[in-house]
Amino acid sequence: MCRDKILFVEIDEKGKLNIRPYSTTYPMIYRSATEVHWDKDKKTLYSPKPTDWSYLEWYLHILSVIKTECSVILELTDKTEWVNIRNELRAEITKAQQNL
Prior knowledge:
Blueprint: E1 2-11, E2 17-21, E3 37-39, E4 44-46, H1 55-70, E5 72-75, E6 81-83, H2 87-98
Parallel strand pairs: 1-5, 1-6
Antiparallel strand pairs: 1-2, 2-4, 3-4
């Protein structure tokens, strides 16, 4: 299983959660039919704006899909940037990632 760093986690102006990997790309991830998509311009994995699921659930879902479908583990680092992410959510994501 490969590993890749997460450059940034962002909630964009449309309310979508975006995760940008350091080196891997996923232009065909839509084929997994998991509601995880690839933005070729931003080079991010993204989810729809949450309705039934929280941002934390979408974050974990994206990581799970990439691990299962692509055999890549995406990891936060000390250098991961957090864009439009409130401190509480950042703490939840960081804690959940440590428990994976």
